[in-house]
Write a structure and sequence with these properties.
Layout lengths: L15 E3 L10 E6 L9 H15 L7 E5 L3 H13 L2 E7 L4 H9 L3 E5 L11 H11 L3 E2 L8 H17 L6 E5 L4 H13 L4 E7 L4 H7 L31 E5 L1 H15 L5 H17 L5 E6 L13 H6 L11 H6 L10 E2 L4 H11 L3 E5 L5 E6 H10 L25 H7 L6 E5 L5 E5 H10 L1
Parallel strand pairs: 2-10, 3-4, 3-6, 4-5, 7-8, 7-10, 8-9, 11-12
Antiparallel strand pairs: 1-2, 12-13, 14-15
Helix pairs in contact: 1-2, 1-5, 5-6, 8-9
Length: 459
């Protein structure tokens, strides 16, 4: 008889499939490593079992214990499978941008799921990182795998995914591309492949709103790069220990829209019903391959998960249209939006030395909801939002006598004029009500949520 002792023994040895349609115009051979063939439908199964088995060997997790993890969903699924096979309890924390399908799947596997806000810093006690850490300290015999900094994540892919790719390409692989989130699959595979052939080129796929690309290119951790985005599973606002930048030769950033459109194309044109970050990986890899892949080259792209996690998002026509992602629509940009403002008066600002009472009068008289704050030299040093100011005034009525510098928020971020509508929509939210952009004359303009709505209505 031939059978597996448990479901975890079916992890690995996923197939590679040649891409034929979405690669038109690309030289060389492009292969997709299809990780949804793992039992949990994602590549995260590999490192889930490795992290738990290593924890058991160290004595960090004992029989009957609890596994607690912050996850975007797929790692939780992998850990849930391992927990079922080994008799552990699971508690998972997720950011509220994750799809309902992911939450429902984890709960169906017997896990407790705690949904946390996305738009908070990692250090905020409400973040899904912090909540997982707190629960680990509070619950006896619990273990926090911490996929971001647990190097078993990288080792899992060094020991399995990398050797599979080398074997299945007969050692002919010349380029490797993958989305970078925790960094485990990118760097574990890259380390193995480069040990076999140091000439192999590795391309990391990042998303707008993440710090990776700029950090790789400049060595600077720029907090101005961080803003909310919609794509799940790639990009970060931290530097995980599993991301070894020395193993990643190049980074390519991909917008939420481009990733979503490519995800649907992979399903429709290649028969690969994959997840959202798979679209990111393929789009970014193809953008890089256009100028760098030769006839004899072989590129392998990791496709991390399955499309069932995204039925209510990228595979929903209504959701795509609501977000301005529908493939037949014309996409606006910051440049198009500020062109409509060209006939308007100059940007209204307020001095940091003015009073809150002055700000109230100005907001009312010019009928705006946000005000950039400037210093004596005209530099942007802060911002005011009518909704936040109102909340502050209700809590502290005497605030009207204070100066703007005492109550202002961070200055609005400047974005390039070619920033697309989908990127703008991910940046502008309740906590970040506007962005700034310079027009053709170099003059500053402001883009608010109202401007975005008008732009969508015109498409």
């Amino acid at each position: 008889m031939k059978y597996c002792e448990s479901i975890v023994e079916t992890i690995g040895n996923t197939p590679m499939v040649k891409l034929n349609s979405v690669t038109k115009g690309i030289k060389g051979t492009v292969l997709a490593k299809v990780e949804y063939f793992n039992p949990g439908n994602s590549m995260k199964d590999r490192m889930a079992v490795k992290m738990i088995e290593d924890a058991e060997k160290r004595g960090d997790l004992r029989p009957g214990g609890t596994i607690i993890e912050g996850t975007s969903g797929n790692t939780g699924m992998g850990l849930a499978l391992v927990a079922i096979a080994k008799g552990y309890r699971c508690i998972f924390t997720l950011a509220d941008k994750q799809s309902q399908e992911k939450i429902d799947i984890l709960r169906s596997m017997g896990a407790e799921v705690i949904v946390c806000p996305t738009a908070v810093s990692p250090e905020d006690p409400r973040s899904y990182y912090s909540v997982a850490d707190r629960l680990t300290r509070e619950i006896e015999n619990s273990y926090y795998p911490n996929q971001y900094d647990n190097l078993s994540n990288t080792v899992a892919h060094y020991e399995t995914t990398g050797p599979e790719i080398w074997r299945d390409t007969g050692g002919k692989i010349t380029h490797y591309a993958a989305g970078v989130g925790t960094g485990g699959s990118m760097c574990g595979v890259a380390k193995y492949l480069k040990e076999q052939n140091p000439e192999i080129v590795t391309v990391g796929i990042d998303t707008y709103g993440s710090v990776f690309k700029k950090y790789k290119e400049t060595g600077e951790f720029d907090e101005n790069e961080i803003y909310p985005y919609l794509t799940e599973g790639i990009g970060e606002d931290i530097l995980p220990a599993n991301v070894d930048f020395s193993l990643i030769d190049h980074f390519v950033k991909v917008t939420d829209k481009d990733a979503a459109v490519m995800t649907r194309r992979l399903s429709r044109e290649e028969g690969l019903f994959v997840g959202w970050s798979c679209g990111s990986a393929v789009w970014g890899a193809m953008e890089w391959a256009k100028d760098h892949l030769g006839e004899d080259d072989v590129m392998v792209i990791i496709l991390p998960d399955h499309g069932t996690r995204y039925l209510g998002k990228v595979y929903s026509d209504t959701w795509m249209k609501d977000h301005g992602f529908h493939e037949e629509r014309i996409y606006s940009s910051a440049h198009h939006i500020i062109d409509k403002q060209s006939g308007e008066d100059a940007l209204t600002t307020i001095s940091q030395d003015a009073t809150v009472s002055d700000a109230i009068g100005l907001l009312t008289s010019v009928n705006v909801s946000q005000l950039p704050v400037v210093d004596g030299e005209g530099e942007f040093v802060g911002s005011l939002s009518d909704t936040k100011l109102l909340k502050q005034l209700i809590e502290e009525p005497d605030l009207k006598a204070k100066t703007i510098r005492e109550v202002m928020q961070q200055p609005f971020q400047f974005v390039p004029a070619d920033t697309t509508l989908d990127v703008l929509s991910s940046m502008i939210n309740r906590n970040n009500p506007a962005v700034m952009v310079r027009d053709d004359k170099g003059l500053p303009r402001i883009i608010t949520q109202h401007d975005l709505l008008e732009s969508i209505a015109d498409i």
